Write the structure tokens for this entry.
Amino acid sequence: MVVTLDRPDRRNAIDGNSARALSAAFRSFDADHGLSVAVLTGAGGNFCAGFDLKALAEGTGPEVGEGDGPMGATYLQLSKPVIGAIEGYSVAGGMELALWCDLRVAARDAIFGIFNRRFSVPLVDGGTVRLARIAGQGLAMDLILTGRPIGAEEAERHGLVNRVVEPGRALPEAIALAQRIAGFPQAGLRHDRLSLLEQWALPLEQALKNELRWGRKTMDSGEALAGARRFADGEGRGGTGI
């Protein structure tokens, strides 16, 4: 499923209506058993410039619903992965949206940054949390305090970006990556992903028990046994099929 932010005249900045639409789109994706991976992208050459400050100035501020962040989907924990396909600007709340994605594919000339620093608009869509967890407190503090821009290649060095591609190729490359991920057996993939996400809130001993709990669910699904039989029959030797 491809979800496109489509307000190119505002560099895909999010207002209240688009935040609600974005959340609804990802809730629909998560509930659809026929879909395995989503790709989030922006129209018109930019990913997202954050919350629409013009709307905020007009008195239409962000809303926080049950499970929803001001930018829409940023408080949701989905059962399936989302890949960000990033061209142009991914700044302020737009960077927070990108950090919410599981993986990020960015054009070489993409720009990230906490540009809202200039206007005293706070990070309330997970930016102060996910930025440090993904890239470490050093870079997170740098970007949060200075508001400086960061390019895709520097972002990749810090783990903020997973793939750097040529300009104009972020969406097709993200879709290709999504199709590869969707081609794997899904129960084990989703359970391992959830164990990874949930471990942040747990002490080590509990995190290991939670990992085992999800692993047992994969075993109980029959997927691991079927995979072991395929391997025994000669499939996937030497890493083929990945």
User: Anything to note?
Assistant: The chain is about 45% helix and 10% strand. The first strand starts at residue 2 and ends at 5. The chain has a mean pLDDT of 93.
